[in-house]
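Sample entry (351 residues):
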Amino acid sequence: MAHYILKRLLLMIPTLFGVLLITFAVTQFVPGGPVEQLVHQLQHGGREGGEASVGAEGMYRGAQGLDEERLAEIRAFYGFDKPAYERFLAMLGNYLTFDLGESYFQHQDVLALMASKLPVSISLGMWTFLLTYLISIPLGVRKAVRDGTPFDVWTTTLLLVGYAIPGFVLGLFLLVLFGGGSFWDVFPLRGLVSDHWDELSWPARIGDYLWHMALPVTAMVVGNFAVMTLLTKNSFLEEIRKQYVLTARAKGLSENQVLYGHVFRNAVIPLVTGFPAAFIGAFFTGSLLIETLFSLDGLGLLSYEAVLQRDYPVVLGTLYIYTLLGLVAKLLTDLSYAWVDPRIQFGALER
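Predicted structure, serialized as tokens:
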């Protein structure tokens, strides 16, 4: 086991290096970089397109334009006075200590900036993860037991309809219906909590938080039910048809004993092995459209705005963290196969 884990950890290094190298190379050729954006702002009064000019005091020359000396100062301000390979190697060295640099436009440490957006992404991801598993697994078991019945047919229809509706369309519908649009004003339109949240008691704070989360979480979670529910159903159906189930029934065991004492622990293996990736992803998942629709300032919106503004420290820093967590989640997923199913050997995984 130790040899397999060490091998997988070592393989993460070239993967991370390749992802960062390709992304860094692409950013060198994308037009409208931070230097060009800052020059545009300075030439138009330093007020258009954001706040990149903050921290670059003394560089503004108004409508007179910018000479080569001033442009050189701006390039040095962003570190573009050095060759690309030097900047890339310096970035890799900083990333080893999780120093992700400072945002060009928001002038905050990238890690601190990501941490400030985490409450929204954790809220959306955690509730999506919990509700998906808590509803889909029991429903999938029920559908497997009642395979082919009207219950199975109409629940499958509802699941596929929910899967076919994009999350942002459902979110817009919920806002119109329950957010004070044309019908009922039941749920808030924006934010994670109310403006007076700090003044509320703890029970009231919890209620206020859940009240704000109801619509965005519903919009995100409905589309996830179909895949998990049908995966659970098919996994249980495959186990129910095996010989050991017939043997257990022949011994006089009740249907619940057969289902939950024998079938469940075998059928749940494909679902359990997906827990690590789903759980880690829950802390960084998010939907740009859902966050925008419900005015939630999360990691999805942060990454999108960073790409638009050419905020390279945020783009590369978030990509580094996402890729690292994704690789760790993949390793934990592979290990969980052997942990929950003794028939799987690490030697076989290595081959």
